[in-house]
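User: Reviewer 2 asked us to show a designed sequence for the structure in our supplementary figure. I'm pasting the structure tokens here. Could you produce the per-position amino acids so we can include them in the response letter?
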């Protein structure tokens, strides 16, 4: 009986050890080897990882005639609010295939939240102020990270298994499936490096003096 107890305790410890969550760290760099900030690194497969339900909607603010932030990564199934802190009305919309919606002219926080339930790139605009633009990147699950100024990222809390990890950036010329990397998570953490080919940043038009301000 004692030997059985010892065996069961050993098996329990082994199971607990194998279930320890691991972390994937690394860096995203450009074709010139320089770090890329504000890239999103995420688990592409398995897409159906269990995601923690968001306790409150994500926020894409509108301030000084601009969307803040200009790029918002979220997990599919997340609601997003678009509060307007300007003293003029905005008309938020998207014609992107993953999510088409329209929030007619409004001020303040009167607009209802919008549910983003399909993964993909959703381009956001204002029908009154043409220069206002942003992106909501809807991801398959909540296992994603945004790179720091030095291009580094960390994806924690990954169980043992096979994962496909990829990277995205608003200026990237690469398809996410072309740069995806397959990695096995077992008894130790993993490290990855992604190299992106970036297009030049687009210049923004002036934000003052538009005759359509309302």
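Assistant: Here is a per-position design you can include in the supplement:
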């Amino acid at each position: 009986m004692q030997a059985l107890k010892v065996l069961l305790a050993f098996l329990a410890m082994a199971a607990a050890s194998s279930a320890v969550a691991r972390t994937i760290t690394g860096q995203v760099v450009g074709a010139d080897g320089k770090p890329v900030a504000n890239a999103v690194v995420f688990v592409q497969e398995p897409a159906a990882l269990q995601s923690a339900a968001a306790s409150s909607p994500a926020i894409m603010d509108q301030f000084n005639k601009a969307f803040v932030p200009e790029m918002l990564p979220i997990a599919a199934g997340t609601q997003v609010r678009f509060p307007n802190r300007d003293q003029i009305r905005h008309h938020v919309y998207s014609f992107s295939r993953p999510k088409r919606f329209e929030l007619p002219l409004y001020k303040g926080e009167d607009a209802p939240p919008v549910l983003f339930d399909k993964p993909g790139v959703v381009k956001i605009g204002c029908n009154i102020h043409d220069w206002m633009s942003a992106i909501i990147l809807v991801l398959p699950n909540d296992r994603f990270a945004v790179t720091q100024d030095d291009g580094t990222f960390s994806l924690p809390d990954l169980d043992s298994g096979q994962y496909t990890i990829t990277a995205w950036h608003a200026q990237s010329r690469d398809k996410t499936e072309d740069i995806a990397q397959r990695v096995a998570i077992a008894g130790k953490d993993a490290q990855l490096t992604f190299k992106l080919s970036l297009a030049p940043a687009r210049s923004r038009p002036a934000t003052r003096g538009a005759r359509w301000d309302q």
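For the response letter, you might also mention the following. The longest helix spans residues 2-18. Helices lie at 2-18, 176-179.
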